């Protein structure tokens, strides 16, 4: 079959790590395994239009548009991505691509769009690959999409499917791989179904430390080896936590992982503090709320000041009241996003 031109759209979600990926080796191989909840509302929609060129070019040929306008500033990132994946998608130089993206979350909200953006783009390219190789299985499609997304941005490999995704070789997880993420293969108690994530936008500014710089800081880090082995231990502990619905155990691991991620940044050279005073205010409010109620609300953090507030669906009403009454005041312009666990990318 001759494919001349066409158009593909994917909507891919963001994800929030419970055990954090921080530190990598060559080829986007993670220094330790990680696990995340796939999100539902926070997502990137990407449309790739493709036109077959008369003859294969020497360079990649593409135009970029973001939320309806040309966006040249994305070019270096996309170019690097194309160079990394060309081996696995040999058709890339035979087409001209127009790549249009938009995010469901507000501009410069401090929410990283690399996971949702790179996974959406990888899925679009896989759809073209599937048109060229229609016999491809659905399982292979998802695995290779995750593999390609990893080469774009490590954590993006965990955004193809949901609701709980694990990435990185871990001796206690059957089928785990450094190359792509897998669906968490063990039992998960129903208290974790439809888990809620309210993202408090504490600081909407540009990230102070890019994740590339952050991962690099782990290379000569005095605590690196201890940290990497701790991630393995935490993943092992999570297995019974998920199976038994042990919310207290879950909170301990998730909050410790968030603080450890920041501790790694505070103890690297150069060192960084990515939390803001309001990040700490929110953490203290969450702890005191948990002490005076029997709520299981907890927090996690990305490599920035924003706070992800995690809680079971059964506590939605009371925690949401608490967030509105006590936490929103610490958000920049009172902004926050209500999200929940999602099930992966959609066409
Ligand atoms: O995917 P990257 O290279 O942007 O790294 C993301 C790292 C964290 O978000 C801090 C942790 C994680 O596992 O997602």
TrEMBL record:
Q: Could you list this entry's UniProt keywords, alphabetically sorted.
A: ATP-binding, Lipid biosynthesis, Lipid metabolism, Lyase, Nucleotide-binding
Task: Please state every residue range assigned to the domain named Diphosphomevalonate decarboxylase-like N-terminal.
Answer: 13-173
Q: Which residues are in the Mvd1 C-terminal domain?
A: 199-327
Record has ATP-binding as a keyword = yes
One Pfam family name is MDD_C
Organism domain of life: Bacteria
State the PANTHER family in the record. DIPHOSPHOMEVALONATE DECARBOXYLASE
Full protein name: Diphosphomevalonate decarboxylase
Species of origin reads Sediminicola luteus
The top of its lineage is: Bacteria, Pseudomonadati, Bacteroidota, Flavobacteriia, Flavobacteriales
